[in-house]
């Protein structure tokens, strides 16, 4: 048995249960050992004098009467005994767990987790804890068919089999010493079964450092690679042709757009490789800038590709590019396309008769061959993993890469988290936009909102209604949206045409609905968050978000950005009855500012980085234990160390660094 063995090799686990663990991403014994609890139950014993009525707590003491089981009725019974803690004696009862009798030895020390009944001065036991001193119990994320107990048992079994000892140290000795970090084996053991709070804190500090160190090592390597690349394309675009295009736009570029475009063009023109992040709030005009960069590539005889996260967006960008550049040949490529259409698109892309390509993930799939691909742009890049971006990049001959995002990333975080990229910012909205008015209302006021909405619709307005977000449950998400549509249909009757859109729909169905909405054949579009990114319907001036307190501020801001795209006054209505102060605060902040950066900072403070970037889709790796905000000091330290290592001359020849690189390749978040 070794770290790479299947769990089935462990005592007490068969192939069947091993298979269940795969749902948690646990395949090998190593995976199991590195599957850390996400919190601990504090089972520190309490004095009975401190217990409140109904409180659940751990009580320790000496068993002073024999345990006695009383049966009454079918399968019902009560186990009772008394425990002495200091001078106090407490009656303890367990219901319907007669088998516990064996565990309760007269005169022994015992720890019981139970519920306190003040009036009777008695404890209703829920659990007999294994060890008296076991005051922190790990709590793991579990899946169906695997209980907490099963996880703990499996981990214990792996540890008993000596597996933790096989985990080799993956941090260099000098770092362990410099930062006084716990060794790896000890840290892993303490993550699961800490001796006490400080043992756990030390273990956590070490594990976080390890995660962030490898993350930074990865970034620094990318950066070094980029710097040393002289094989980037020097895209010699036709400046006067580009200027003609800019003049032909129906509006002047904002100062911020001009400066972002200048950054991008300079990168393109230079022989080194462009790796730039273009940040700008929703509606700030990033897409226009991207289109101009694509046009510049075209004038240099190069293809460019724009990749977006959804087919709806691909269609939308495809349409607007064709509007901007009626004389160019532009292709659309999505996986939902009919085979014949797709085949001819692929052909045209490969033989170079196409100048620009817009599409979804289909752009990086096998079988797509480009013809002199010089520029790659991804929209809403936080939706793509690092791996996908790299695949895309490898499709061409090292094309320049521009990533656009409307998720404002606070500067400090951008430097450390996207350390290998340059950043341009569009920090002003086009002139003439009316600021969106945001209102927070309680559910009780919904009637009023709806009647106001009815007037707005009668006057030709269009409305988005976003159904509540149910994290991790697509089916509940759907049910909520369907219910909401029914309620609205019942309320509006003939007064509004209502359509429903959700993530389970087929692409062409979504597209059909979106088009109907754009063409004003639909007044109210009820939707789950699938409309979140990029969609552009200037006539829609109201967005109502149900249970808005369930969303992060950045996400609310993104949703709000669906309106306010034309010259009419737009409104965002947040419907929420938040129970917590933080929830109320969040709603208030939303009504007070339209500044995406400020909201992102607040989000970071309140909810941590995982929330801002969304789980999973984020381009930033998900950390098991570290948080980019909370652990910023560790991140910064790790960055310095990693940069130091990478900047040493000939470091790649040092065998010690080979070990590091090997570990880096193994670490799962970077591929
Ligand atoms: P983003 O991609 O940042 O969300 P878009 O590029 O889609 O923003 O622009 C949003 C809307 O504003 C589009 O309808 C676009 O035509 C328009 N727009 C872009 N730049 C300007 C500008 N400088 N002046 C006026 N309107 C603009
Ligand atoms: Mg956009």
Automatic annotation (TrEMBL):
Pfam families: DEAD (PF00270), Helicase_C (PF00271), RecG_dom3_C (PF19833), RecG_wedge (PF17191). Its EC number is 5.6.2.4. It catalyses: ATP + H2O = ADP + phosphate + H(+); Couples ATP hydrolysis with the unwinding of duplex DNA by translocating in the 3'-5' direction. Residues 267-426 form the Helicase ATP-binding domain. GO terms for molecular function: 3'-5' DNA helicase activity; ATP binding; ATP hydrolysis activity; DNA binding. Keywords: ATP-binding, DNA damage, DNA recombination, DNA repair, DNA-binding, Helicase, Hydrolase, Isomerase, Nucleotide-binding. GO terms for biological process: DNA recombination; DNA repair. It comes from the Bacteria. SMART domains: DEXDc (SM00487), HELICc (SM00490). Residues 445-605 form the Helicase C-terminal domain. InterPro entries: ATP-dep_DNA_helicase_RecG, DEAD/DEAH_box_helicase_dom, Helicase_ATP-bd, Helicase_C-like, NA-bd_OB-fold, P-loop_NTPase, RecG/Mfd, RecG_dom3_C. Belongs to the helicase family. RecG subfamily. NCBIfam families: PRK10917.1-3, PRK10917.2-2, recG. Plays a critical role in recombination and DNA repair. Helps process Holliday junction intermediates to mature products by catalyzing branch migration. Has replication fork regression activity, unwinds stalled or blocked replication forks to make a HJ that can be resolved. Has a DNA unwinding activity characteristic of a DNA helicase with 3'-5' polarity. This is ATP-dependent DNA helicase RecG.
């Amino acid at each position: 048995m070794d770290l790479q063995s299947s769990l089935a090799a462990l005592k007490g686990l068969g192939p069947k249960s091993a298979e269940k663990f795969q749902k948690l991403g646990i395949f090998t014994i190593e995976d199991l050992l590195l599957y850390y609890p996400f919190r601990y139950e504090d089972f520190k014993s309490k004095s009975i004098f401190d217990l409140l009525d109904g409180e659940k707590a751990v009580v320790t003491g000496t068993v002073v009467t024999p345990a006695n089981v009383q049966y009454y009725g079918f399968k019902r019974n009560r186990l009772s005994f008394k425990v002495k803690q200091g001078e106090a004696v407490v009656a303890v009862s367990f219901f319907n767990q007669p088998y516990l009798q064996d565990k309760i030895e007269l005169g022994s020390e015992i720890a019981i987790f139970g519920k306190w009944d003040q009036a009777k001065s008695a404890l209703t036991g829920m659990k007999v804890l294994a060890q008296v001193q076991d005051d922190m119990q790990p709590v793991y994320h579990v899946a169906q068919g695997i209980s907490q107990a099963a996880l703990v048992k499996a981990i214990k079994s792996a540890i008993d089999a000596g597996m933790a000892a096989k985990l080799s140290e993956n941090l260099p000795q000098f770092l362990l010493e410099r930062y006084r970090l716990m060794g790896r084996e000890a840290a892993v053991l303490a993550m699961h079964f800490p001796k006490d709070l400080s043992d756990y804190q030390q273990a956590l500090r070490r594990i976080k450092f390890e995660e962030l160190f490898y993350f930074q090592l990865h970034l620094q390597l990318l950066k070094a690679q980029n710097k040393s690349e002289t094989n980037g394309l020097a895209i010699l675009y036709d400046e006067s042709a580009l200027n003609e295009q800019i003049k032909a736009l129906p509006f002047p570029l904002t100062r911020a757009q001009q400066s972002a475009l200048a950054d991008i063009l300079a990168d393109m023109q230079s022989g080194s490789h462009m790796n730039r992040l273009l940040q700008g709030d929703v509606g700030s005009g990033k897409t226009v800038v991207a289109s101009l960069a694509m046009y510049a590539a075209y004038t240099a005889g190069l293809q460019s590709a724009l990749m977006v996260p959804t087919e709806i967006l691909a269609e939308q960008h495809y349409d607007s590019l064709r509007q901007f550049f009626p004389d160019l040949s532009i292709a659309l490529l999505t996986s939902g396309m009919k085979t014949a259409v797709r085949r001819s698109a692929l052909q045209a892309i490969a033989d170079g008769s196409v100048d620009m390509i817009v599409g979804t993930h289909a752009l990086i799939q096998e079988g797509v061959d480009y013809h002199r691909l010089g520029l790659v742009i991804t929209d809403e890049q936080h939706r793509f993993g690092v791996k996908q971006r790299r695949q895309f990049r490898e499709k061409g001959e090292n094309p320049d890469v521009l990533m656009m995002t409307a998720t404002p990333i606070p500067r400090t975080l951008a430097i450390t988290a996207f350390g290998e990229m340059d950043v341009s910012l569009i920090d002003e909205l086009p002139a003439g936009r009316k600021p969106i008015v945001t209102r927070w209302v309680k559910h009780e006021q919904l009637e009023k909102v709806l009647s106001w909405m009815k007037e707005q619709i009668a006057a030709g307005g269009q409305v988005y209604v976003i159904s509540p977000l149910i994290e991790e449950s697509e089916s509940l998400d759907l049910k909520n949206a369907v219910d909401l549509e029914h309620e609205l249909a019942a309320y509006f009757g003939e007064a509004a045409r209502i359509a429903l859109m959700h993530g389970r729909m087929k692409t062409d169905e979504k597209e059909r609905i979106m088009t109907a909405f754009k063409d004003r054949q639909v007044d109210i579009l009820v939707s789950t968050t699938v409309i979140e990114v990029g969609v552009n319907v200037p006539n829609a001036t109201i967005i109502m978000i149900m249970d808005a307190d369930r969303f992060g501020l950045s996400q609310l801001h993104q949703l709000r950005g669906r309106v306010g795209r034309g010259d009419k006054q737009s409104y965002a209505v947040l419907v929420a009855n938040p129970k917590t102060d933080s929830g109320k605060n969040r709603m208030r902040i939303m009504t007070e500012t339209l500044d995406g950066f400020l909201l992102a900072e607040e989000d970071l403070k309140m909810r941590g980085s995982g929330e801002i970037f969304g789980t999973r889709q984020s381009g930033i790796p998900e950390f098991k234990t570290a948080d980019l905000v909370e652990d910023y000091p560790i991140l910064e330290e790790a960055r310095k160390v990693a940069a130091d290592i990478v900047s040493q001359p000939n470091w790649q020849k040092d065998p010690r660094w080979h070990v590091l690189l090997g570990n880096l390749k193994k670490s799962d978040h970077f591929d």
